Prior knowledge:
This protein is of the alpha/beta class. The protein has helices spanning 19-32, 58-67, 86-93, 149-165, 183-196, 208-217, 229-243, 281-293, 297-313, 327-337; strands at 8-13, 37-41, 69-72, 96-104, 117-123, 133-137, 140-143, 170-175, 202-207, 224-227, 250-255, 260-264. Adenosine-5'-triphosphate (ATP) binds next to loops. One of its GO terms (biological process) is tricarboxylic acid cycle.
Amino acid sequence: FSSATDTIRATLFPGDGIGPEIAESVKQVFRTAEVPIEWEEHYVGDQVDPRTQSFLTWESLESVRKNQVGLKGPMATPIGKGHRSLNLTLRKELNLYANVRPCYSLPGYKTRYDDVNLITIRENTEGEYSGLEHQVVRGVVESLKIITRQASLRVAEYAFHYAKTHGRERVSAIHKANIMQKTDGLFLKCCREVAEKYPEITYEEVVIDNCCMMLVKNPALFDVLVMPNLYGDIISDLCAGLIGGLGLTPSCNIGEGGIALAEAVHGSAPDIAGKNMANPTALLLSSVSMLRHLNLHDKADRIQEAILSTIAEGKYRTADLGGTSTTTDFTKAICDHL
Ligand code: ATP
Ligand code: MG
């Protein structure tokens, strides 16, 4: 990249616990690969910002809104009253309506399956997560599951558009409409409407219990999966487990107006924080998702390739993958591959 006008500004939240260590790894890999990105770093504050009612400042949110793209390390929400969880604040304020998790088998890292290659797309704003719970009378409580046409169409549209632009062939809507006739029924109706606009993509509907059974029997049966919030929470973790777990799985949150905030699936791992032991792969692969969102596919391919060959080679692996390498050694090995 030759001139300053070619550089893209992106927000980076290193986050808590192992966050700063794995964020450093991403920065180093990006420097080595000469990715034309300039990071705007933001940290979680130590007091509540009244404008966001959270430890995230208004300026941090503005940074993502302005840059439209960012990478987020794990954030541990401080315990106490009078503030919102950090993840909820981000999700609500930036309207991050879809959580996208690519799940593919990593060559050379053996799990029960060798041929996983699927994408889960989770509706991220409503469903069972609307936070509407109350006691009706003593001994009886009620929780409202909200499904709207607007949010369902939006996530379905994202899923089909994703399938089309990423060379995918099939979208499966995951549901329990036989029991949740109104809510999941509406979700499916919206998926069907969108499916009609994409005749080149095969559309199917799979009941969630059957989906779980099929996923553990033969995950290669699936391509792109789209589903309401709670099912997405469960199924996306199930899929992460198919390919090797927390240290490896990336995700990306998509917001209104094209915002993309990529993040690792795992938490702040306080047990290994500051010990140079964390596996940066999940955050690195999340940063690869971010590059793909920016259409920087050649950089994304190169970095992904370097990560995968380093893992496949097996010489440098972090402790969670059975190796003895530090975060910095593993990162250096990736940079050498670049
Ligand atoms: P949080 O409350 O922030 O979610 P946690 O205690 O639940 O923190 P997680 O981050 O969810 O911890 O991790 C669960 C386990 O997986 C821990 O033992 C942690 O060390 C391990 N782990 C998570 N992420 C990684 C990683 N990137 N590399 C290595 N080990 C990890
Ligand atoms: Mg956790």
